[in-house]
């Protein structure tokens, strides 16, 4: 009993066998800490769903143990679930200045104003009874990203967070390799969890700085054009580089897109972005010549409502694409977005713009370590046990194989699933049991109220629409007093199919005509008969299966 | 008048600024011919739509002129609209033996048995009054693919169809370069239309034969494994190569997936596929050891209902994936399918299979010419005028630039849209006018009956579901006799939201209570008031906007 209590439990609640909603629980004795609380964006089949967050019922059940949430960095897939988590569990939150500020903005939208937000620096430690949680700087596609080392008397649990090794970082902040090595030497890293996003990609990810050179080449060539650059709002180093190149070529910078404007504000305020008077208001772009302008915009993923998509569709109020404009898409399409990005590019080209995307120029780099960097990380940390995290199964598997290659013993490497409990102590590690886990769907204000039945109905409605049949019956003798009335939506264009609707009414009428009078009062029977007969009729006539909703009323 | 009549009209009805539904009209004097009649698969936003075909109203209007449909090859994007076209316009159809057989299968499904199908060979000409239509062999990812030369007294209109230049084709049938050169020399090619699919890809597409070598390498290594190969059913040369390598390694071949079984039957019957007793029934695979088996399957695009996806999800009745299986995906994901393919791969890996896809081994080649081949085609044909076809705008543009590079005069190159009329004769070419064009949506048996209203409703229903409100009123005094009854679907899980439904009932009741008695009879007014008030109520409560359907009845 006491012995079991000495084991550290590591429980991923999100981020395994998926991209997104990263969240990891570490439990030791009577203390629980949570690393990250991210969201993921819904897959296509989750109709109408806004975002997806991890199931946190294990944390709610053990609320008294939870000592804090420790944030690696400020991307949505690491902080997006914070408002939902804090509503249930108002524990202290720790993260870098930028992470905390981005959380603050998010909480404001949710009208949460009692959160206990704490800014920490690199090498800062938050000391608990049995654990001490240390933040260690890494490089990533957002400034101020940390990995996290949890010191215990059993050894250190090290979580890399999302990272890359950028030897020429924009802000001069190298990954703190020294500290990782030091911990490994002095205490030993018992278990490492590491970012698997690019575990199937050979070599090393290029430095963010290489993007600057790529941009400069394009700016140089396009000396007569207005330049529009689409990128991720949160990549502040990218924004810095665009602003720097703009300045070099005497161009003013204007910004379009709500998230881009917001983050620019935060970044300037916190001093993450060095800019000066060459940032102008988007309303003032008409005061400058084309070759005096750069517009930085959202929409690098082709999102239909984004600023770039609106420009491409001539729906942007302030920016009209014209012949000669150079549009630079400084991003890769995230898997699943290839078609929307391609659509936007086609529209931009049709309007006469030149479009340069990252497949033909060096204008984007990933924020995630590739295989050579992952091997370096193994060399720094030298973990005894290894748990690949953050990735689909194929990435986790590749990462496990890589760890094996560089010398981690095969039996010390674990590929597990969200909700699995990995128990680890000085003597060993093993998968032992599960806790509740899964995805909670957020739709509007609803948290988890959209389940499989609602989704199944939405899918049904989306494919074939519906037909509602209303009949009012007499309470006395069950005869029809009004109806059958039929209303359909999303099924057929009614004017073209009057015969079909009339035929459907006849079917319903005949159900009543042919019904044994004793059964008139068995509404379930009548409704099912109407459903069955209409379904067959409509399928024969149209090869479609609308949802059929019979409604009976009695007066 | 007579002069205008001498002009040849070239009218693309599909395939421009899009991938798919290829169809080109050529009209000269009182004769019209149609090259191809393809379908495209619906984009995500076309909810519930099965397939999309071109608008053929121009052909229907000019039915007396239409002399025939000339098919380049048997892919769906070239023959998929045939049943719909022939139902309106039963004109003769010409194509290769394979194309015609695939059309015959398709027409059978549609119970069309009076089609005038004609098999033609390479260099065969179909002579009309003013045009003579010649079929010229090209290479593509389906056997027996033709380009089409239309001979007229103004010169030749040459349509490459989909093509690549495969110098080591599987069936020995080289593209008929000689005939193209001969026509160019003797008659001159007035206008060329050419496949733009790979116009943005440098170099040349590899020979289909290279795939055989890639497969052999994998078969050699996996000497203990069962091998499963997923590929496109219509790529019969690919099937031949898989069968050949299987034979080399003493493996029997079984086939899974309806379209794969069908096409294998057609191909064997017509002699396109040389196989012998080493093809076995899928029911007999248990009689063989793993290393004596190859299973060829559909599902290379991750289609959810395909045989491979069913294997990955443990839903396949005859094939269960097990540790050690080698799954070879001999295809590239078509843009938009990346995620579904990735999902299938993850499931296969989780079951312990090894998966090799075309990004890590030479096991797939495209059927479309890349830039070097497109330049060769320009060199063979030496067209005076050039019209890039088959591709999104960005591809058409790249193809136009390529033509310019190799010497076609810029003013002789046309980037036009579906429905545009390109008039051409010996003296010149120009865009002149438009004919009706667009997409016709097929949903079940409905051809074009699903329009924007139905699609908008489906989208609305898919995102937030619906709420139906039924009230029965008295004819005499307008008071409520029954209801309000409320039924919702796809909105919220009702058990969790009884208060919400009760609240909604109260709102509806209060609309009646507060309504001026004179207005009770104005149903449009009442319905709109119910809609508005419920909409606001539900949005405040849920931040969702279900479709609201008020139904009033009178007895």
TrEMBL record, chains A, B:
Q: Localized where? A: Cytoplasm
Active site (UniProt):
195, 368
How the cofactor is bound: the record states:
Binds 2 Zn(2+) ions per subunit. It is not clear if Zn(2+) or Mg(2+) is physiologically important.
Residues engaged in binding Zn(2+) 2: 78, 390
Keyword set, alphabetical order:
Calcium, Cytoplasm, Endonuclease, Exonuclease, Hydrolase, Metal-binding, Nuclease, RNA-binding, rRNA processing, Zinc
Complex and partners: Homodimer, may be a subunit of the RNA degradosome.
What is the protein name for this chain? Ribonuclease J
Annotated organism of origin = Peptostreptococcus porci
């Amino acid at each position: 009993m006491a012995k079991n209590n000495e084991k550290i439990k590591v429980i991923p609640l999100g981020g395994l066998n998926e991209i997104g909603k990263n969240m990891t629980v570490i439990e030791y004795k009577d203390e629980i800490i949570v690393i990250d609380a991210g969201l993921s964006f819904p897959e296509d089949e989750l109709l109408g769903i806004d975002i997806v967050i991890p199931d946190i019922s294990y944390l709610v059940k053990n609320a008294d143990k939870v000592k804090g949430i420790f944030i690696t960095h400020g991307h949505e897939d690491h902080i997006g679930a914070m408002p939902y988590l804090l509503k249930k569990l108002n524990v202290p939150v720790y993260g870098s200045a930028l992470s905390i500020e981005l959380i603050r903005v998010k909480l404001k939208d949710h009208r949460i104003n009692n959160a206990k937000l704490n800014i920490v620096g690199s090498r800062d430690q938050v000391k608990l009874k049995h654990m001490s949680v240390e933040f260690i700087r890494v490089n990533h596609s957002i400034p101020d990203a940390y990995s996290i080392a949890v010191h215990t008397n059993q050894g250190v649990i090290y979580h890399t967070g999302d990272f890359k090794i950028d030897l020429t970082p924009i802000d001069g902040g190298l990954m703190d390799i020294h500290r990782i090595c030091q911990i490994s030497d002095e205490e030993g890293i018992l278990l490492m969890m590491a970012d698997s996003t690019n575990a199937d990609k050979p070599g090393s990810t290029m430095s963010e700085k290489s993007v600057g050179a790529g941009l400069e080449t394009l700016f140089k060539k396009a000396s007569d054009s207005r330049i529009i650059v689409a990128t991720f709002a949160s990549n502040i180093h990218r924004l810095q580089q665009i602003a720097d190149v703009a300045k070099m070529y005497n161009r003013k910078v204007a910004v379009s897109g709500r998230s881009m404007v917001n983050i620019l504000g935060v970044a300037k305020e916190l001093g993450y972005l060095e800019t000066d008077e060459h940032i102008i208001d988007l309303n003032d772009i008409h005061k400058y010549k084309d070759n005096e302008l750069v517009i930085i915009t959202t929409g690098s993923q082709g999102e239909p409502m984004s600023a770039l998509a609106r420009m491409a569709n001539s729906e942007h109020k302030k920016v009209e694409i014209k012949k000669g404009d150079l549009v630079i898409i400084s991003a890769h399409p995230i898997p699943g977005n290839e078609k929307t990005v391609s659509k936007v590019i086609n529209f931009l080209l049709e309007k006469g713009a030149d479009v340069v995307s990252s497949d033909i120029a060096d204008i984007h780099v990933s924020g995630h370590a590739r295989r050579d960097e992952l091997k370096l990380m193994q060399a720094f940390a030298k973990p005894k046990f290894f748990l690949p995290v953050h990735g689909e199964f194929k990435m986790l598997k590749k990462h496990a194989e890589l760890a094996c290659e560089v010398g981690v013993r095969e039996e010390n490497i674990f590929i597990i699933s969200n909700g699995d409990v990995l128990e680890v102590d000085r003597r060993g590690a093993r998968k032992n049991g599960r806790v509740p886990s899964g995805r909670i769907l957020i739709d509007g204000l609803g948290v988890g109220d959209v389940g499989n039945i609602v989704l199944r109905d939405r899918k049904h409605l989306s494919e074939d629409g519906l037909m509602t049949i209303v009949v009012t019956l007499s309470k006395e003798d069950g005869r029809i007093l009004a109806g059958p009335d039929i209303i359909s939506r999303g099924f057929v264009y009614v004017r073209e199919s009057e015969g079909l609707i009339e035929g459907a009414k006849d079917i319903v009428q005949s159900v009543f005509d042919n019904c044994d009078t004793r059964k008139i009062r068995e509404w379930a029977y009548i409704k099912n008969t109407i459903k069955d007969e209409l379904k067959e009729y409509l399928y024969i006539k149209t090869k479609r299966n609308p949802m059929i909703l019979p409604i009976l009323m009695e007066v």
